Amino acid sequence: MSKPNKFSFYVIVAILSLAAGFVYKSREMGITVSLPSADRKAGADKLFNATLSDLDGTPQALSQWRGKIVVVNFWATWCLPCRDEIPELIETYTVHHQKDLVILGIAIDDTEKVAAFSKEFNINYPVLVGEFDAFSLAEAMGNLQGALPFTVTIDRNGMIVDTHLGRIKKKQIEEIIKPML
């Protein structure tokens, strides 16, 4: 991708993220996106069939997390609601990762910025960098607005059980995952 196209991409994503931030501030709870059951399976399958790079640039097959409870969080370093929710995602992962829970951060950002941010915040869960591929994954999982943050929970059977547009809180995640643990 050329530098002007990449810059335009990030500007558009920033604007969409700001819009999601305003929605969050006005509603404080975010928006739950409802998916038909066929789309819940297809969206999860698209995720598990994808490969994205980790912070070292190593391709990671998302299928490695199939069969676990997976909380997928689409985010970016410049997204304020994303930054607000990351400490709670870290806490949730710390408490529940030994119970087959994976929190998977998919960043829509530059790898170097994501790596520095992850180190600064001591992110303890897997973080991958997705760029355009991440938006198509998020869309397949119910994010038709293309806004951030966007969080999806997938059960052990590979079915999307919850989608959340806007900032999500630890309490909300725990209410979703508790019956599955």
Structure description:
The chain has 181 residues and is α+β, with helices and mostly antiparallel strands. 46% of the residues lie in helices and 20% in strands. It is built from 6 helices and 8 strands, in the order αβαβββαβαβαββα. The protein has helices spanning 3-27, 37-48, 80-96, 111-121, 131-140, 170-177, and strands spanning 31-32, 51-54, 59-61, 69-75, 101-107, 127-129, 150-154, 160-165. An 8-stranded mixed sheet has the order 1-8-7-4-5-6-2-3, sandwiched between helices. A hairpin with a 4-residue loop joins strand 2 (51-54) and strand 3 (59-61). The longest helix has 25 residues, at 3-27. The protein is globular and about 45 Å long. The termini are far apart.
List keywords for this structure.
8 strands; 8-stranded mixed β-sheet; globular
The radius of gyration over CA amounts to 15 Å
Q: Roughly what fraction of the amino acids lie in strands? A: 15-25%
Class based on secondary structure composition and strand pairing = alpha+beta
What profile does the largest beta sheet have?
Answer: 8 strands, mixed
Give a quick summary of the entry:
This protein is α+β, with helices and mostly antiparallel strands. Helix content is 46%, strand content 20%.
How do the helices and strands line up, and which of them pair or pack?
Elements: H1 3-27, E1 31-32, H2 37-48, E2 51-54, E3 59-61, E4 69-75, H3 80-96, E5 101-107, H4 111-121, E6 127-129, H5 131-140, E7 150-154, E8 160-165, H6 170-177
Parallel strand pairs: 4-5, 5-6
Antiparallel strand pairs: 1-8, 2-3, 2-6, 4-7, 7-8
Helix pairs in contact: 2-5
